[in-house]
Design a protein that fits this description.
DNA-binding; Arc Repressor Mutant, subunit A; about 0% strand; mainly alpha; 10 helices; Tetracycline Repressor, domain 2; 2 domains; homodimer; about 230 residues
DNA sequence: GCGTTTCCCTAACGGTCGCTACAGAAAAAA
DNA sequence: TTTTTTCTGTAGCGACCGTTAGGGAAACGC
């Protein structure tokens, strides 16, 4: 009665893949949209640009407070185009979170991977977070931390929570590697140090949202590194 | 056309005062509601009990995600009774925040006021926060920190933000007093220490929401105090 | 040119939101 | 008792939510 179709899930099988695994470069076809060759009319908007707008919207207002009509407005497309290109709101948000991670959150992984010691890695992580969280011209703080607190959709909340805990686990892995390498005492409480790093990141993100300036967050980062065992 | 009344603000001038400044004790009249003597039918529910339920609901789900229908359900009253007793959703939330502060957040002010030194005050503040934020049988974390992030009503978000910043300012006042008393070096960066304390509280609150146990938060609190100038 | 395929726009769906008119019930005051 | 005042339950308001038919319009392969 409500939906006389098969099961009313989704009738049009649009492309909807997060990112087509095309070869290197911007891909074939310089036209707008340009996702290789299709049979019919090509998309009239740039998917990546629209996704970036969605990232900024979700980043600033969070999952719930960002309405689909608000999304269509900032993305410059109609609701049916949004649903055809990204699926429903949740899958768009999922894609947004991934895009955020690669475009804005990559400094975390880089700091952990590129620095020679665990201590230097965490120091750089916190220092760069102070800058990232207060970068002018974009929302302050971290999307992963703030976009899905107090959410009526528990799965969304749980997904970001899992991401946060995974990030802390990554820090702990790096610290453990430092202990194994002999940089840190063998009895170092790696879990506590990692959790402390995560708590500092989360506190800094909240402070950034509450109006703290970059210098203040950097002072915070500097303070936080004092707890480490003397080198 | 929409509202043929005067301005449609509020027709019934119910009592709606947050807490009647009655004398000490539970007040006159042991009956349910018992707000002195009124002329008509007395309220059939206990206002304080209902408010406490609202505190827990807002605490757990936040301002936006707590619907009025959800509130009426947990409070055990109908929507008109809620509006007559507490005004609209926002003023109820305001009252909830105040009630939370006096019933669950008072440990902050006590720690700052009762300890002999600034360092001991902050240490106790963090240690007790670890316990408060993970207390079984009630929502984890802090309502002030989490109930109005990503809010479609900017005033509500701003109100809690102001409260957080005021709390940090209170910590800084205590630290400054410690400097003035000679407990701490005269060149102590009081603002940074206070902000660090606030960031730790916020990080601990988020960790509590993300599933951290009391012991883990206590380890965090212990770590955080290492940054203080040696006594 | 053709037909086909896909996209975009308008409009609307059912559901929930915060909020309230209205009438009836209940208790205090007379 | 009667009168007056207030509370409570039903039922519904308009607005917005996320989501989707359905009908042109546009660009492809041929």
């Amino acid at each position: 009665m409500v939906n006389s179709q098969t099961a009313g899930v989704n009738s049009q099988a649009a492309d909807r893949q997060p990112v087509p695994p095309s070869g290197a470069g911007p891909g074939p076809g310089a036209g707008p949209g340009g996702r290789g060759r299709g049979r019919g009319r090509p998309r009239s908007f740039d998917r990546e640009t629209a996704l970036e707008k969605a990232v900024l919207a979700f980043w600033e207002h969070g999952y719930e407070a960002t309405s689909v009509s608000g999304l269509t407005e900032v993305m410059g497309i109609g609701a049916p185009s949004l649903y055809a290109a990204f699926g429903d709101k949740r899958s768009l948000f999922e894609e947004v979170v991934n895009a955020y991670g690669t475009r804005y959150g990559s400094f975390c992984g880089r700091a952990l991977a590129e620095e020679p010691t665990a201590r230097a890695a965490v120091e750089r992580l916190l220092r760069e977070a102070a800058a990232e969280y207060t970068e002018p011209g974009r929302p302050h703080g971290c999307l992963i931390i703030h976009a899905a607190t107090n959410c009526t959709t528990p799965e969304v909340e749980a997904s970001l929570r899992a991401r946060r805990n995974a990030d802390i686990a990554a820090v702990e892995d790096r610290i453990r590697a430092g202990v194994a390498a002999g940089e840190l005492p063998a009895d170092t409480d790696t879990a506590a140090l990692a959790r402390h790093t995560g708590a500092m990141l989360q506190g800094m993100s909240q402070q950034a949202r509450d109006g703290a300036a970059r210098q203040e967050l950097e002072a915070l980062a500097e303070l936080a590194t004092r707890i480490w065992p003397r080198p």
